[in-house]
What does this fold into?
Amino acid sequence: MRYVCKNGFNIETIGGGIMLNIDSVEKGLVIDHIKAGKAMEIYHYLNLDKMDCSVAIIKNAKSKKYGKKDIIKVENNLDMDLKVLGFIDPNITINVIDNSVIIDKINLELPQEVENVVKCKNPRCITSIEQEIVHKFRLADREKGIYRCVYCDTAYDKK
Amino acid sequence: MLKGRSLIEPMDLSLAELDDILNLADRIMHDPAAYADKCKGKVLATLFYEPSTRTRLSFESAMLRLGGSVMGFSSAESSSAAKGESVADTIRTVACYADIAAMRHPKEGAPMVAAMKANIPVINAGDGGHQHPTQTLTDLLTIQTLKGKINNFTIGLCGDLKFGRTVHSLIKALSRYENIKFILISPDELRVPDYIREEILMKNGIEFMEVERLENVIGELDVLYMTRVQKERFFNEADYIRLKDSYIVDNKKMSNAKKDMILMHPLPRVNEISVEVDNDPRAAYFIQAKCGMYVRMALILKLLGVE
It folds into this structure.
């Protein structure tokens, strides 16, 4: 099991690194049910690397639902654009913590638009050559979760 | 209000705005002299990053016939793009010299980028295999002029329906008119993309059917829109040989078509419409080319707010 710790989390390994315990968040967010292996992507999407707050990333935690999952805990920062997570993986759950108690659960929806999250894969798209362009996708079909590049209409393939 | 706006795709226009443009084009067609000086002192920039005959010349002719002037380039090599200049920088520079711009670019979405950066109207004159809205306006004006209306028709689209941008734009635009039925005629590998079938036709409950052979359905059509099927688009030689004649319109096939059907083609054609059909009164493709100029005149007038 691998883990990343940044600023102030008390991480304790038990049983030769098989078990992992991280102190609960007193105030902040717990981003749970992240598909195993995707935590670092989300860390970057949320620009957590640029924020001056405590962040713990737990990779490959046991999950009854999915077998394995990743979790991100963010201390003292509630001011993030979380809409993007709906685009990346709508199965993610977000708990808002205050005084070490869950005070809110944020249900993710597919956002209408996402900017600079992913790039268009169509080699004929203007985004493949134009400098400093905003990479933008718009929700075209909510039922099927299809997003299209606003410039060339190519569907984004999440695979 | 169209003044100051750009046209990037046909769906940028509401039905009322489309009607407005088509009706103005119709008035220009019947009295061109009345519009001969409407754009005096105005400059159109034609920014063509790839070659084009019809589209560029019809834009230039449109502006000249409105009394305006034209400047521009006709290939990327003769522009600053060859030095690596971005579309955003090019259009901001051009906007200092011109009142309106028409852009053709091999990269899809380039005119949209231009429109986002420019403070003058930008018209998409074709972006890769993506959109070609003024061709769609041309097609709509042709149908309205020759058939008197744009509703209650069975429209046949034949040939390469997968890669043909004119076909995709036309389906989108026609899907907003009442009681339009489509018959989509193409080899299996060149059927319309899924998104046209699912997000436009099925989503809007539009009646359509997909068939492989033109000769089986030509008698049902009010409009037949031909596009070229290139041999290299077929997956195998056997299918090409089996089907190639089905996508060529000749007098024999026309003999089974309705007396008032119109035969359209965005041009250039190669062999998909036999030359023998040119004398058939139902052959509309050169009238279509002329409609292209009138509708661009109307569009320029509207976007400049002159009319």
The domain at 10-133+292-304 of chain B is CATH 3.40.50.1370 (Rossmann fold). Chain B has a mean pLDDT of 94.
